[in-house]
């Protein structure tokens, strides 16, 4: 027996389960080694006590309640609770109880106590982790639903696994409905410009295993068909082992900013007034077209158009009418070219038409001709019937230039030649034209030298009174004695001087020289006559103009009555009120004023009355055909009649023949000037003439 009890005890002590045996009253009669370790109580400490004394205070009440209800139903107790040792340390346990029963009465209880601290710790860790995960998920969920960007996630197969609130709004799918759907069903995107399905960014992110941006110009089609421009990016999601598990697409509506950007681009590329492409867009299109034409071995035509009489109309009728005319011109150009041609406004009254694909050079000329026909019809603006003609320069790629810039430049040069060729015509670019452009630049630089080296001289052309036959005045005409080129006439250099601004100092020189000369003649006792000096627009507009004349008259001592200024209609019409006050000041000084080339401009007669002028010079183009052309004859007669009514002296320019003279005489024209009487004479020749006159 002893051995069997000993071996039984050894078995029990070796058990990892703690064992507690009580008598019928619940007092401890036995504990094994494991129980002593778990409870922290040695056998003598435990002996006679109840097992419940070791229960952790927080668990005690619950366990005792369980114990009683188990006892009541005679069921074994199975529970988990903490033991608290004397030193404060805690052990989690699972406890089973069994009644020691001999069939008639209870003798006590056996408790088995398993130390589950380790398992509990893991459980708690898991719980805490779960809690944390939940919180994290919740945080992510709230974040994802409160951001403005739409977020959509897919699995590896490209099926939707998540859609946030913004995503629901933008796709028109609820998160629940979207779940499991193929991405392209929920996230239906197309290329805004081609309307073709757009490259799916999620597929690329999965495939390339990296974050990818979306193709530009992407449009999302909502479930109900509504379209919005979007911008987005997609990124792969990885599993812990680094394998791709799915993708996340983040996108947002950029309709507004894209519309704004489109508007900005349109503004930057179009002319505000006419809505046509502007120079920047044309240059871009021309370069593109040249690139394409190389591939199609086609030619590209460029028409550089300048309106002929726009400036006059604008000056005479005002900017509002001018603007409307430009719009009307733009509309007509667009109406008369093909829809594939690009019409552009370069600025001012210059337009350019790009003909993207022409078979042969001549095609561009045909377009130019048809435009000229189209412009035979006047533009109806504000009750005015306005006629505008076109000077057109044509250049063709690849013959006339190897890139956009040179093709443009050469069309411009050709246009300049069309202008010089008498306007209302078109010119193809020719290589010699560039030689002429080089020539112009050379002239410009020698003009500066001419001023300092005193290479200019003056000629005087007599003006004859038709009634008396006497010389009553002379027009001062500038000449240039260039050391290499010889004697140059104004047509060869005045327009260039006007363009580069040199006309101001040159004109000043002419005025001083003319006044000095007349004063010299007067001093010499010769029969000097009043002289007429031509004034260019730039001189007239120059701030110091009036002061300059005053100073010259003072310094030369010339009687202002000997000076007449010739101004063209267009100069006066540019700024009528300034012109009136300037002319009034000049008249006050005693300087006479003439309108040169009268009849060629667009002057309004009501304005003409406001200008304090003394002379009208009938342009030579009318005088030229006075005998053969009824229209010209009528115009000349009208001008003579008008001059008489307004008490102005009328002088006919460019009189060459007896017939012309006879006509003018018979219609009582006051004066005449022209080769019929005399060419313009050098100072020496003219001095001799007035000497003779004196005699
Ligand atoms: P304009 O003021 O109309 O001058 C008359 C032009 O007609 C002069 O040419 C003159 O020589 C020419 N002419 C005179 N009689 C006849 C004729 O019977 N038949 C023909 N076919 N022509 C005749 P020019 O000297 O070559 O001057 C041309 C233009 O240059 C002038 O036209 C004037 O606008 C401008 N100009 C001349 N001198 C000056 C100047 O000192 N300053 C400015 N700003 N312009 C000037
Ligand atoms: Mg003149
Ligand atoms: Mg003239």
In short:
The chain has 695 residues and is of the alpha+beta class. It has 27 helices and 28 strands. An eight-stranded mixed beta barrel has the order 20-21-23-24-25-26-27-28.
Walk me through what this model shows.
This protein has 695 residues and is an alpha+beta fold. It has four domains: 18-115, 2-Layer Sandwich (Beta-Lactamase), CATH 3.30.450.20; 150-261, Beta-Lactamase, CATH 3.30.450; 271-429, Reverse transcriptase/Diguanylate cyclase domain (Alpha-Beta Plaits), CATH 3.30.70; 439-691, EAL domain (TIM Barrel), CATH 3.20.20.450. 46% of the residues lie in helices and 25% in strands. It contains 27 helices and 28 strands. It has an eight-stranded mixed β-barrel. Strands 6, 7, 8, 9, 10, 11 and 12 form a seven-stranded antiparallel sheet that branches. Strands 2-1-5-4-3 form a five-stranded antiparallel sheet, with helices on both faces. Helix 16 crosses helix 17. The site of one magnesium ion (MG) has 4 residues, from strand 25.
SS content category: alpha+beta
- First-residue to last-residue Cα separation: 183 Å
The helical percent reads 40-55%
- CATH fold title of the largest domain: TIM Barrel
- CATH homologous group name of the largest domain: EAL domain
Number of domains: 4
Share of β-strand residues: 25-35%
CATH domain class name of the largest domain: Alpha Beta
Largest sheet: 8 strands, mixed, barrel
The count of helical stretches stands at: 27
């Amino acid at each position: 027996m002893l051995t069997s009890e000993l071996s039984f005890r050894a078995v029990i002590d070796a058990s990892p389960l703690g064992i507690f045996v009580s008598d019928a009253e619940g007092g401890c009669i036995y504990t094994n080694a494991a129980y002593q370790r778990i409870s922290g109580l040695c056998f003598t400490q435990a002996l006679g006590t109840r097992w419940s004394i070791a229960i952790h205070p927080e668990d005690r009440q619950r366990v005792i309640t369980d114990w009683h209800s188990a006892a009541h139903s005679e069921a074994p107790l199975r529970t988990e609770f903490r033991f608290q040792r004397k030193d404060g340390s805690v052990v989690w346990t699972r406890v089973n109880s069994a009644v020691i029963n001999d069939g008639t009465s209870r003798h006590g209880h056996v408790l088995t106590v398993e130390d589950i601290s380790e398992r509990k710790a893991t459980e708690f860790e898991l719980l805490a982790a779960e809690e944390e995960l939940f919180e994290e998920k919740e945080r992510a969920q709230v974040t994802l639903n409160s951001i403005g960007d739409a977020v959509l996630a897919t699995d590896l197969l490209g099926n939707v696994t998540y859609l946030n609130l913004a995503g629901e709004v933008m796709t028109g799918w609820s998160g629940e409905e979207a779940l499991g759907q193929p991405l392209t069903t929920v996230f239906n995107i197309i290329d805004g410009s081609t309307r073709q399905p757009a490259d799916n960014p999620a597929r690329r992110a999965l495939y390339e295993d990296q974050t990818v941006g979306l193709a530009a110009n992407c449009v999302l089609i909502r479930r109900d068909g509504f379209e919005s421009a979007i911008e987005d990016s997609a990124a792969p999601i990885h599993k812990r082992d680094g394998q791709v598990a799915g993708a996340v697409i983040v996108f947002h509506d950029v309709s507004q900013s894209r519309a704004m950007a489109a508007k900005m681009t349109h503004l930057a590329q179009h002319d505000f007034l006419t809505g046509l492409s502007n120079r920047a867009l044309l240059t871009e299109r021309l370069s593109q077209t040249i690139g394409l034409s190389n591939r199609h071995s086609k030619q590209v035509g460029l028409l550089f158009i300048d309106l002929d009489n726009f400036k006059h109309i604008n000056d005479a009728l005002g900017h509002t009418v001018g603007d409307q005319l430009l719009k009307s011109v733009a509309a007509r150009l667009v109406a008369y070219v093909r829809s594939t041609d690009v019409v552009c406004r370069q600025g001012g009254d210059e337009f350019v038409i790009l003909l993207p694909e022409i078979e042969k050079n001549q095609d561009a000329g045909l377009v130019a001709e048809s435009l000229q026909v189209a412009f035979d019809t006047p533009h109806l603006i504000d009750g005015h019937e306005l006629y505008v003609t076109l000077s057109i320069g044509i250049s063709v790629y690849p013959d006339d230039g190897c890139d956009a810039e040179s093709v443009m430049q050469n069309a411009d040069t050709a246009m300049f030649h069309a202008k010089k060729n008498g306007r209302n015509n078109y010119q193809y670019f020719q290589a010699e034209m560039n030689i002429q452009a080089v020539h112009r630049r050379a002239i410009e630089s020698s003009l500066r030298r001419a001023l300092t080296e005193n290479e200019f001289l003056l000629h005087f052309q007599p003006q004859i009174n038709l009634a008396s036959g006497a010389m009553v005045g002379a027009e001062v005409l500038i000449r240039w004695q260039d050391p290499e080129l010889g004697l140059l006439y104004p047509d060869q250099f005045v327009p260039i001087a006007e363009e580069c601004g040199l006309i101001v100092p040159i004109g000043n020189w002419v005025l001083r020289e003319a006044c000095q000369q007349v004063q010299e003649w007067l001093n010499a006792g010769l029969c000097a006559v009043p002289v007429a000096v031509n004034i260019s627009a730039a001189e007239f507009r120059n701030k110091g103009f009036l002061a300059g004349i005053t100073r010259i008259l003072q310094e030369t001592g010339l009687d202002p009555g000997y000076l007449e200024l010739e101004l063209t209609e267009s100069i006066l019409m540019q700024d009528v009120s300034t012109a009136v006050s300037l002319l009034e000041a000049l008249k006050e000084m005693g300087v006479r004023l003439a309108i040169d080339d009268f009849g060629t401009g667009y002057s309004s007669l009501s304005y003409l009355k406001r200008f304090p002028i003394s002379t009208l010079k009938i342009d030579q183009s009318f005088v030229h055909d006075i005998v053969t052309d009824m229209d010209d004859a009528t115009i000349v007669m009208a001008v003579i009649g008008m001059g008489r009514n307004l008490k102005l002296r009328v002088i006919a320019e460019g009189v060459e023949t007896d017939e012309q003279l006879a006509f003018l005489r018979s219609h009582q024209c006051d004066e005449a000037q022209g080769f019929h009487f005399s060419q313009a004479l050098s100072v020496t020749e003219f001095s001799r003439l007035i000497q003779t006159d004196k005699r």
